[in-house]
Amino acid sequence: MHPTGDWLGPLPTWLLLWLLTLAAVAAFLGRAGRLVRLLRAGAPDARFDHPRERLAGVVAEALGHRRLLATRRYSGLLHLFIFWGFVLLTVGTIEHFLHGLFPGARLPLLDAWGPYRFSQDLFNVLVLVGVGMALYQRLVLRPARLTYNADALLILSLIGALMVTNLLASGARVALHPLAVDSWLPASQAIAGLLRGTPPAWQEALYRVGWWGHVLLVLGFLVYIPYSKHLHIVTAAPNIYLRSLRPKGDLRPIDIEGALERDEPVGVSRIEQLSWKDLLDTYSCTECGRCQAECPASLSGKELSPKQLILDLKEHLLHDETARLLARRPAADATRPSADGHSAPGEPRRALVGAVIHDQVLWDCVTCRACMDACPVFIEHVPKIVDMRRHLVMEASRIPPEWQKLFDNVEASGNPWRFPRHARADWAKGQGIPTLAERPDAEYIFWVGCAGSYDERNIKVSRALARLLDRAGVSYAILGREESCTGDPVRRVGNEYLFQLQAQQNIATLQPYMPRKIVTACPHCFNTLGVEYRAFGGAFEVVHHAQLLDRLVAEGRLRPQERLEATLTYHDPCYLGRYHDIYDPPRRALAAIPGVRLTEMERHRERGFCCGAGGGHAFCEERTGRRINHLRVEQALAARPQRVATACPYCLMMFEDGTRAKDVYEALPVADVAELLEQATRPAEPAASGEAAPRDAATQESER
Amino acid sequence: MNIVVCIKQVPDPDIPPAEFKVDEAAKQVVPPPGVAPVISTFDLHAVEAALQLKEQHGGRVTVLSLGGDSVRDALKRALAMGCDAAVHLQDPAFEGGDSYATAVALAAAIRKLGAWDLVLTGRQASDWDSGQVPMALAELLDVPGATPVQKIEVRDGGLVVERVTEDGYQPLEMPLPAVLGISNEINQPRYPTLKGIMAAGRVPIPVWGVADLGLTPEQVGVRGSRLVLERLYVPVRESRCEFIEAETGAEAGEKLALRLREARLI
């Protein structure tokens, strides 16, 4: 019995199979070639370094489904079945085709090997289970994150039909021609069992229907894949391999002067100004919506959905711009870069920024990175958003007024609120806190940051940290008036130019004091000083105060003794947690306080939820949907803590604003890790009055 | 359409009130340290209005400012926003001038610039809030003037503008050339683009003194002023807080109303 051993009219069926296969492969390659040529229209991006690390990521994330199984396990599991089914059944498919194309051909070794046969049979069933779970999710559970379209249902039906036809062919074959290896095929045996007693001609017909049905479905699938969201089965693994290995908090620096000299863009306003990897990201999106389900903007009812952003970019690339990007340039033109860098000639059919992606969508982002950490295929949403914001700010000048004000304030006064520069160190007056001029041999520079210097609430944190450093015997000093905004908020809003001015100024200020370590209580300053300044010549050793305090407690230099009887939940600041993987030090430092019982909010650590202040939003009103900080306070209340701790000045401000709005300001006190540790390490009241150290006099003074 | 915009640099109005100080003896505002002076807000709206008119109708926008060295920053900002040229009026003789003396210097500079169709200023400067310069300029240049203006439309070679009034607006038709004092309702000033910032750095800004304008020191500055400053001081403001106590909200409301009536506030 051979599936392609007969004739269809004048045509031997093996020849028919050849023709169909070649046509399908040609169609696939034609479309794939077009997609690859489109990628090449994107801007350059070096993504081929560190092959070992990249490969390890593919193993863990593609083969191991690490992210897919970390959360939303139901989806992860069903995908695991389907994915591994595809991997293993592809071998079977090759065998299937070899068998049909070269009558008599067999895969060497595998054919009679029981375990291989078993894997085929098993995964036919597991994939069906996976498809069933997917359909149940899609039709009954209906999570909001999914995109409900015909494409998904068509694909699931195709996959299901592939399995059914394969099982039918296999079962009929077992019934007709039992082999010794068939004991490894329980599912096929079961089908054969059902066929027992039917006429052999029926079984033969069923075998052919199953066999040819499977072949035709495979070929149809091959043609359909590159037109559907299931392109990800081809691009996901490469996309994971080519993922960004740059430090997470390091936005792409721009050579501003060079760009202006060469008349190149400083932001992204055309699809081809995105890098080829950005374009590959759009091919890889599976519409799973895990990004959207973690996005504070989406969850609070803003226009931004990271999933829709990527899909809109894809739609724009594949429908509006393909013809323009693939148009052949005149030969003379091809050797010379076009006038504005990476732009193809001709005008886009629709404006990328404004029409395809609305300005507000870009502004809604808090740059918290939750989407990127949730994405199973490592799509990079935030850099694209910031690149387009750069266009809005530096090229188009379409900027919300509050952020114009922010720029003016940072430029005029070195802080986001336009407090006078000379008042920057006023918080330290009378506190016995030395400047570098006063303590030139200090081991640490205490980088206070704008919030810690000017914001009444965060001044308390700065003072608490200073006292803790004193108690632990850490030699530190502040810069005083020389310190200026690191530029984090303006960079994230898109004003790279102003950011670089601030960076240059601060690097010049810090450089003469090096080598020294820097400690800061602000995760944004921590990221900017420690990671982003490197691109501008400032390589500094920076620790966040949560890390330093944790170490000082571990070393016994800080001994928390004062009890704090409280159930406490810790809110992960995005720029400490997701951006720097610093989750444990603040928790350890808090747990060291006697009486503290730590409890977690549902969204914590890698899944932490932004307070609403990131990406410049500390300085801009939320006008649509709900307030992100109110959502976060509700999430905190759900964990039933008595207190909230955090380690970021902006999280602190947003949280307290939220507890006030929710009328739980008194009931749910919010504090920085440093404040709680400071209270817990206060020296015991001296027995004799008047013996208190001068520092503690200051402490009590400031508490009033 | 060639437009001249007159801007004034003022102490940052957004500084904390405690930072604002005057030297009563010298009758001068003490510039707050550590905070750069800025372009007066209404003047930014005037620059924006000029740029929008230029975008619609073509022409050139020249920006003009009178003051000390720091004024160059204000002019550069206006250039970065998109103005084509800038002139800095600087001369010791200009110092201490009132609105009229300033208008005399500005009018002379505008005449010297030559071909112009429209002069825009802010409706008033955010430091002194006098609001005299636009109408003085119109008088000195002998053209029609209107202020405060919230909308400008070019029609049949002339203008149709809307003047802000207490209870609405007043539409006016006027021929060109003209002088308009611009109010903040008209637009949202733009933030300079990167190209604008870079280009502004390369534009030379000529400095014109009294002699360049064909004026004498007697006509400008303190000596050309008609206003005499008697005294400059920060008024002491007293505020008191009074709690209305009552059992219920309704009762409190009633008591509050009575108290306000008593204080002749309602």
In the CATH scheme, the class of the largest domain in chain B would be: Alpha Beta
Identify the strand order in the major beta sheet of chain B.
11-10-9-12-8-1-6-7-13
Distance between the termini of chain B: 51 Å
Q: How large, in whole angstroms, is the Cα Rg of chain A? A: 31 Å
Structural class of chain A: mainly alpha
Please, could you describe this protein's structure?
The complex is a heterodimer of chains A (704) and B (266). Chain A is mainly alpha-helical and 704 residues long. In chain A, 53% of the residues lie in helices and 5% in strands. Chain A folds into 3 domains: 7-40 and 72-241, Fumarate Reductase Cytochrome B subunit, CATH 1.20.950; 256-328 and 338-398, Fumarate Reductase Iron-sulfur Protein, Chain B, domain 2 (Orthogonal Bundle); 415-684, no CATH class. Chain B contains 7 helices and 13 strands. The mean pLDDT of chain B is 93. Chain B is globular and about 70 Å long. The A-B interface holds A 256, 260, 266, 393-397, 399, 401, 404, 407-408, 412-413, 418-423, 481, 497 and B 12, 14-16, 19, 32-36, 38, 188-198.
List keywords for this structure.
heterodimer, A: 704 residues, mainly alpha, Fumarate Reductase Iron-sulfur Protein, Chain B, domain 2, four-stranded parallel sheet, 10 strands, 5% strand, B: 266 residues, alpha/beta, Rossmann fold, two-stranded antiparallel ribbon, 7 helices, globular
